[in-house]
Amino acid sequence: MFPFRKLHAQCFFFLLKPCQNPRFQTTKSATKFAGKATVKQAQAALLEYLHSTRSLNFLDADNMCKNSPSFLQDLLAKTHLHTPHVDTKRSISRYLRYHPINEFEPFFESAGLSPSEYAPLLPPHMIYLNDDVLLMENHQALCNYGVPRTKMGRVFKLAPQVFRYKPGVLISKLREYENLGVSRKTLINVVAFSPCILVGGVDFDFVKVVEMLKRVIGKDCEWIGEHLLINKGCCNWRVMFQVLSLLSTVFNEKQLCDLITRHPGLIFEESGGCVLSLIGFLLKFGLSVNRVCVMLHEFPEIRAVKFLSNLRLCFLFLTEIKMEASEIGRILQSHCLVLGSFTMKRTITLLTNLNVGKKRLCRVVRDDPVVMKSWALGRRIEPLVNSYVEYESKALKKEFMLRLGYEENSKAMNESIKLFRGRGAELQERLEFIVNAGLDYEVVCKMIRESPRILSQTTDRINMKIESLVNEGYSMSDLASFPSFLSYSAERVKLRFSMYNWLKRHGAAEAGLALSTIIACSEKAFEKMYVNRHPSGLQVWRDLKAQISSES
């Protein structure tokens, strides 16, 4: 009796296991532990069905079996539910004999599309591939041309009308591009990632881009296909050609080749539209074309889209803390590469974590814009009260001002320290730069005490203004008499000097006017006292304004 009881108990325990009943098994659990042998048997059964029974091209059938894992998983689950104890290949063969499949599902999946992507492409009243003659003929034409079957998904997704062409049309389009100088390898790669060149007539902008890249890079362009993958849609070759044309006007071919090789994303992200937006953004904030070129050459290892997004976030932050527009422009001009390389936290988060108000935060950023890098996403922020950077900067500034001759904690010192922009070390560097330009140290200290704002700009801007001064025939002693000259914008200085020179040439102004007379007066006063002296003066003044404004 004992063996019988033991066997009865084992059978009872076996029946209690819910997973033994196939009705309780999900698709996932049924195929989760399917081994390689099982998958190979399933592939073999499906290949036999597609090729032998359904008469599909062997290469198409083989590709569908090997590169449609989701479809195969569902097929295994269904056959397991119907015949759970039969050999896998026999089970699938028997299932397919009585349950025709929608052949478009493994076909589209094997081309590189996920089920959610190919669902809208499924024909509503068709399940057999051979019934869609145009689709299969055009698919075969692309395959014969060299486009890999596994990369055909973007063609189906982005240019489905390609598969509705009449026989011979598709190949004739490819031949047209070849006749225009585009190599077969380049076409294969581009069609796989940006198939819209096959829609409509010949895309001559695409041909121009290929020609320009071949000339600049010095080799064929089959490599561009992989870079087109970063775009969700088709490439806009017209925009890309405009970007390349723009860059070719400011870079020579060697420099442009180096730029494209190191940062291909600048050209291919959003078809180059992103770099156009970036250049426009920087020009708007006062960067010269040459400075933009230098910035592109030193571009960090980051996507152009992300870089532009980071810059915009920094600009938004600076506007939200109520910083003046001129200061925002100065910071973006001098630190654009740094600001674009990290993502700022939100303004409200910074104000809370730093435990400061907008006014003080604005002052901290003006003194040292690089401090914003420590407020990037992912970094821990300490309250600004204990910030060593601020205390160090203030100490250096005070030390610098004492060397200039200010009395410690005097009213003049407290007022002047608010006008200085930059760290103490930077202020000392600017002072030494003016001294090295040809003035005595004591004279420069006196100039700074009279006009503290002259040290609130970079040495590059100071140098540019001193050069314009000397080129107009003035000496450094004239600068010592009128130090505020360095505080005026370069555009104002250039405009006033240009107009003054024109008036001198036409006998409407005497030579040797003082710097302060030319530069310091308001625009209305300058027009009244000097411009209106000549009948054509006002028109020349307006033309010069427009010219200098466009150059800047």
TrEMBL record:
GO MF terms held by the record: nucleic acid binding
InterPro entries: MTERF, MTERF_sf
Identification of the protein by name: Mitochodrial transcription termination factor
Single GO BP term: DNA-templated transcription termination
Recorded family membership: Belongs to the mTERF family.
Pfam families given in the database record: mTERF
Organism expressing this protein natively: Vigna unguiculata
Record key words, sorted: Transcription, Transcription regulation, Transcription termination, Transit peptide
Segments traversing the membrane: none
